[in-house]
Write a structure and sequence with these properties.
heterodimer, A: mainly alpha, 79% helix, B: mainly alpha, 78% helix
Chain lengths: 479, 220
């Protein structure tokens, strides 16, 4: 029974992917897609009731439990959004039924790859899973077969491949460091064994390995200056994929990096990974905040906002310590929920207006009030204004930094404010002002965005003690 | 470990670095593909030698993949793609040969200095292998940035990947090497056998990445 839950988290997506590849009826497939993600979510939640023992290849602990639930939940809501989004794309002929079949199948493969990367108890297996996730998203990004989509997919493919290649080199170096201590073979790649023995590893090898892993997985996280693929991939792919990319895949890459950071934290002679992550995080934040100003494409703009927030999260984890780690975890959760909600809204807005150009979609609150106000709420949340969840987590990041490194906190606040101003500047054009573009009625599925934003609102007002306790435990684990 | 076993492993890994340099200054696509085939062939020999030296029969699978897939299937497939696309002319380069070679020498020196310093305690075979592997990886990266042509970027990526396989087989007793080389082969097959190059040819009428970049950034 216990093992079944874990098998479900991995097995249901695989089964669904095979099934969807065979089913020609896309309406049925879209519904089954929702069913499959619902079942996966239930399996993921049941992991909490009885935690399985770590095996040779799979492991569930408090840290990845958080990520798994977040991944399967956003995967579930995105499948609901995706059903109405893809329906519309079919209607206007942007996608044809064979591509939709392919799309649904790939969606499940992506879910499988992300879940596998999260539960892997083996650094090699985790690498393979992240590679699979990258490949899947490359194909989804290129699915529209336009100039821009193909170029975005190509760029993502090349940069992503180089990133994961560097990460593999880092992984091999970790094995090299572990081999003399843990012993040859599969044991020297198992997380549960590595963490307990890491204090005896050769520090120089571990340092070098972390540099490669940081560059490699950092590319996948979208940290500046390795972020070049991210805005294109978000802007040109189907919007549900933008939501999953921003909300989930970036987190999975971050998770991988955090695991390796834990290894270095245990080893007293290895370099402190914190300052490196802090530097990259702050660079990404400030860079992305300025880049927000010149954006003309709405999905591109929110892609830069993702870089900004991944910067903040990496910064928080780089600072380390119970409070900053707690803030990082909370911020990651809130960002995933908010950003995917925004992409849900943006997807429908772009469909109603028939464009992604910000200049062509003015006066949204008049033409489509529900969508318009949802988007406004989403932007308020993502910009970090009270009383929503991101305000809370950003406040925690800033206040915990002020106590330890006031100068860094100033840079952090500066970046956040620059980003906030840019977002509101653009929001003004989109939401208010002259109504522009077609004012068609949106046949949107509002449930996913409302659910996400409601959770973000609750997170900002009242955090249940159970969740706080849970995150505190994970934060302690991260060191 | 000293002795003939070590010398042959050293020779093969060193040859891989040398062939990486050869790739760096090829300015015709056909010649580049032939050199890449040689690169993959040496990798296969090197992996097979490691399998023998470490008494690790599963590495023969990796060697076989390198030989059949990378040294034969992929170059032949790319060759046909080049013919079909009619791009067997000179490769455009971002920088000159002289600069590329100098940068390559610098990167190899860097790899040696870094790896030999940090792996003082590892056994000598793995240590040298890792240093050579990092050189091959860095040379592959250099090739990817100094070429504009999509096909030669892919060749650069593939030789980078050969360096990773060399590193993985050099790390004694590393599990999952076969699985990882299969995963990489799938990755390469995905692009090379076609989707991208064909679509790019179809849509852009060129495989010159420089021209792709014209579409980049903000759409007006």
């Amino acid at each position: 029974m216990i093992f079944n839950a874990l098998a479900g988290v991995l097995g249901i997506p695989v089964f669904a992917a095979a099934l969807f590849a065979a089913l020609p009826n896309y309406r049925l497939t879209a519904r089954l897609n929702i069913a499959a993600t619902t079942l996966t979510l239930i399996c993921a939640l049941s992991l909490f009731l009885a935690k399985p023992q770590p095996g040779v290849y799979l492991l569930v602990d408090d840290l990845n439990g958080t990520f798994i639930v977040l991944t399967t939940f956003v995967g579930f809501t995105t499948s609901i959004f995706s059903a109405s989004y893809i329906g519309h794309e079919l209607e206007i002929g942007r996608l044809t039924p064979p591509f939709v079949r392919f799309y649904h199948s790939m969606y499940q493969v992506l879910m499988f790859a992300m879940n596998l990367a999260l539960v892997a108890n083996n650094i090699g297996l985790m690498w393979v899973a992240i590679e699979l996730a990258t490949l899947t998203t490359v194909m989804m990004v290129g699915i529209y077969r336009t100039h821009e989509a193909l170029e975005a997919a190509w760029k993502y493919f090349i940069l992503g491949s180089v990133g994961i290649a560097l990460a593999l080199f880092g992984t091999i170096l970790v094995y090299m460091a572990a081999r003399p201590v843990v012993g040859e073979g599969i044991d020297a790649m198992m997380w549960s064994k590595l963490v307990t023995r890491a204090s005896a590893f050769d520090p120089a090898l571990l340092d070098l390995a972390f540099i490669f892993l940081l560059l490699g997985y950092g590319t996948k996280i979208g940290l500046a200056p390795l972020h070049a693929w991210l805005p294109d991939a978000h802007a040109e792919g189907p919007t549900p994929i933008s939501a999953v990319l921003s909300g989930l895949l970036l987190n999975v890459a971050l998770y991988a990096l955090l695991r390796f950071k834990m290894l270095l934290a245990v080893n007293p002679e290895a370099i402190a990974p914190g300052p490196l992550m802090v530097t990259l995080g702050l660079t990404s934040l400030v860079f992305a905040a300025f880049m927000l100003y010149r954006r003309r494409d709405i999905k591109r703009m929110f892609a830069y906002s993702s870089i900004e927030h991944m910067g903040i999260i990496t910064f928080a984890f780089g600072m380390g310590g119970p409070l900053a780690n707690f803030a990082g975890l909370l911020h990651m959760t809130m960002h995933s929920l908010t950003k995917s909600a925004i992409f849900f809204a943006v997807g429908h807005v772009a469909q109603v207006k028939g464009t992604q150009r910000i200049a062509d979609m003015g006066g949204l609150t008049e033409t489509n009030p529900v969508l318009g106000w949802t988007l406004i709420l989403g932007v308020i949340a993502i910009a970090g204004l009270p009383p929503l969840g991101i305000f809370m987590s950003e406040f925690l990041v800033v206040s915990s930094t002020f106590a330890r490194a006031p100068v860094l906190a100033l840079v952090l606040v500066f970046g956040i404010l620059v980003g906030l101003a840019a977002l509101f500047l653009r929001l003004d054009t989109i939401a208010f002002g002259e109504p522009r573009g077609p004012a068609a009625e949106a046949r949107a599925s509002y449930m996913p965005m409302f659910a996400h934003l409601a959770l973000v609102l609750i997170g900002g007002v009242y955090l249940p003690p159970a969740l706080v306790g849970w995150f505190e435990g994970v934060a302690k684990l991260l060191g | 470990m000293r002795g003939i076993t070590f010398d042959i492993a050293h020779l093969l890994a060193g040859s891989l670095v040398l062939v990486s340099f050869l790739e760096l200054y090829q300015d015709r696509l056909y010649a580049l593909l032939n050199v890449y085939a040689a690169h993959a062939f040496i990798l296969a020999a090197s992996v097979a030698w490691q399998a023998l030296a470490q008494d690790a029969p599963h590495l023969y699978v990796t060697a076989a993949i390198a030989l059949v897939f990378k040294a034969i299937v992929i170059p032949v497939a790319l060759h046909r793609i080049i013919v079909r696309l009619g791009i067997h002319r000179e490769i455009e380069k971002v920088v000159g040969v002289g600069f590329a070679m100098l940068a390559g020498i610098g990167l190899v020196a860097l790899a040696m200095v870094v790896m030999l310093r940090v792996t003082q305690e590892a056994d000598p075979l793995a240590r040298e292998d890792l240093a050579f592997a990092l050189s091959v990886v860095l040379l592959g990266l250099l090739m990817m940035v100094t070429r504009r042509n999509a096909v030669s970027q892919v060749v650069g990526f593939m030789s980078l990947e050969n360096g990773l396989v060399l590193a993985a087989t050099g790390a004694k007793g590393m599990p999952l090497v076969v699985e990882i080389s299969v995963a990489f082969s799938i990755l390469i097959a995905f692009i090379v056998i076609g989707i991208f190059l064909f679509r790019i040819r179809e849509r852009f009428d060129t495989v010159d990445v420089q021209i792709l970049s014209a579409f980049r950034g903000e759409r007006q």
